[in-house]
């Protein structure tokens, strides 16, 4: 984004969180699942104890965007995010990730709104690199493997039809 731009959208990638968003992030980080960070347990064990993420249905003219939060000081290895629904005609600035899914199973997990979502190891590595490193920041990004409910064939078919539009409207393509 051009730093001289006067547009200050609250969903601008890399922007500082508003007070409300910072409270929301603190609330997310204070969920019972997040408090399971006992030194003797591995992150994988902690995540498998949390509830699996349940996608909320999309309206027919919506897509999901991943709000990828900066790491908390307590758990730097954990990826925390939330999925937001946006109208395809009124999308905020966002980035789109283009990457190879790979052949490995979804053996890793990220935390979305206090719930675990399985991801492939190469996507987890991308998320560690892409997440903002400064506190109280986030990155708004579209990633097909996360933003499309891969278990819902109807949604997947509809969303694949939006992919050209999703890639053409992004502010930046990350490869």
Detailed description of the structure:
- The protein is 28% helix and 21% strand.
- The protein is an alpha/beta fold.
- The protein has one domain.
- Strands 5-4-2-1-6-3-7 form a seven-stranded mixed beta sheet.
- Strand 4 and strand 5 (115-119) form a beta hairpin.
- The radius of gyration is 16 Å and the shape is globular.
- The two termini are 17 Å apart.
Which structural traits does this protein have?
175 residues; alpha/beta; 7-stranded mixed sheet
Arithmetic mean pLDDT: 78
The value of Rg in angstroms is 16 Å
N- to C-terminal distance: 17 Å
Structural class: alpha/beta
Shape: globular
Summarize the main sheet: 7 strands, mixed
Strand element count:
7
**Residue runs with pLDDT of under 50 for 5 or more positions:** 1-13, 24-48
């Amino acid at each position: 984004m051009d730093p001289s731009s006067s547009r200050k959208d609250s969903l601008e990638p890399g922007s500082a969180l508003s007070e409300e968003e910072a409270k929301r992030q603190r609330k997310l980080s204070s969920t019972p699942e997040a408090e399971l960070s006992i030194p003797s347990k591995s992150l994988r064990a902690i995540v498998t104890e949390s509830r699996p993420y349940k996608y909320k249905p999309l309206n027919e003219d919506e897509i999901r965007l991943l709000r990828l939060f900066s790491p908390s000081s307590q758990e730097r290895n954990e990826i925390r995010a939330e999925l937001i629904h946006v109208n395809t005609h009124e999308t905020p600035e966002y980035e789109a990730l283009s990457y190879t899914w790979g052949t490995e199973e979804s053996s890793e997990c990220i935390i979305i709104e206090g719930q675990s979502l399985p991801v492939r190891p190469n996507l987890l590595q991308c998320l560690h690199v892409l997440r903002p490193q400064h506190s109280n920041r986030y990155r708004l990004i579209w990633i097909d493997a996360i933003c499309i409910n891969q278990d819902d064939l109807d949604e997947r078919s509809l969303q694949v039809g939006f992919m050209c539009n999703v890639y053409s409207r992004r502010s930046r393509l990350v490869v």
